[in-house]
């Protein structure tokens, strides 16, 4: 299913304004076809939410974009550059444009909060330590954790750890932020604060967001477009008012009925 107009520019392989593009992407784990000839694209600056039942392939898409796994068939393009198939050196360059926040935070436990945020800008982007620290302090202010610079992640609550993970992703100034069920591992009372922070980021930056979430209120608030997955395919897509208010597919209605 095509989610955005698919007129290719011969120079870049993407349509104008298109930041992410998947063409006929298939991913199998053994006999299990997890993504089945998937086509979709995301326009620059848009917020796209992936919803659907567990096991429908949503996280696999984020993992493909992070190059944590490779497709069996198809092509993936980011910002006009091939991410798959592509030579290793090019993949490294394209990967710099993508940040990801995981369900389980994945912070470096032996590094301070500040170092968690400065490590990749210094090591990967070659930023000076001073510049990286200044940027990290700005980001810690944004996420409300200026007083935790020197703390080790294990001393923080889950909500605070996830705020650090968000700051760490933003420190790389990515064009795209991938969010994989970022509140699923949090105690219920910490969920709202993290979602509010992400709402602020969505409102106040031009960063493109691709979110997998079970938080339907959040999806409704931030999304320009919602993609409903089932069995490795997009079965329906549209603006949140349509998907949540008047879905076309029975399967979407059934899914929303179970989670809302
Ligand atoms: P969702 O995010 O929609 O819950 P996933 O993308 O995580 O779905 O998983 C889709 C399917 O792929 C599931 O059936 C899952 O068991 C399978 N899967 C995901 N990762 C692996 C893996 N590393 N090895 C084998 N199967 C996997």
From TrEMBL:
What is the similarity comment for this entry?
Answer: Belongs to the ABC transporter superfamily.
Keyword list (alphabetical) reads:
Amino-acid transport, ATP-binding, Cell membrane, Membrane, Nucleotide-binding, Transport
Question: Which SMART domains does this one have?
Answer: AAA
GO terms assigned for molecular function: ATP binding
Instruction: Tell me yes or no: is ATP-binding among this UniProt entry's keywords.
Output: yes
Q: Where in this chain does the record put each ABC transporter domain?
A: 20-256
Major subcellular location class: membrane
Carries keyword Transport? yes
What InterPro entries does the entry give? AAA+_ATPase, ABC_ATPase_HisP-typ, ABC_transporter-like_ATP-bd, ABC_transporter-like_CS, Ectoine_EhuA, MetN_ABC_transporter-like, P-loop_NTPase
This protein's superkingdom?
A: Bacteria
Localization of this protein = Cell membrane
Cite the Gene3D superfamilies for this sequence. P-loop containing nucleotide triphosphate hydrolases
- Kindly give the CDD domains that the UniProt entry links to this protein: ABC_HisP_GlnQ (cd03262)
Which named protein is this?
Answer: Ectoine/hydroxyectoine ABC transporter ATP-binding protein EhuA
Q: In which organism is this protein found?
A: Streptomyces camelliae
Membrane topology, as annotated: Peripheral membrane protein
